[in-house]
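>> received
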Amino acid sequence: MTTREIQVNIPQTLDPVYSNRIQVAYKEDEFTFLFLHEIPNVNQARAKAIVSISPRHAKNLLDVLASSLRDYESKFGSIQAQQEKPVENVTMRGYS
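>> returned
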């Protein structure tokens, strides 16, 4: 696998966001990730970012996340996933 370096320019006006929940929608040509901040004890969440990527990039993201999680766990220990009931029929308004 070849590696290449690219210069990444991050605008000073770009604010980081915190997300503790994500919804995923997909269609034939893209995956859309809706990053949310769920507000405890209120049963509400605020949308923080929406990111759409191609299916090929989604597959690459899966590989990068899996590799990063393996590295993380080798340094800091196993992560216990929180078991939640899956949400069925999630619909994103404004997304077709």
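>> The mean pLDDT is 89.
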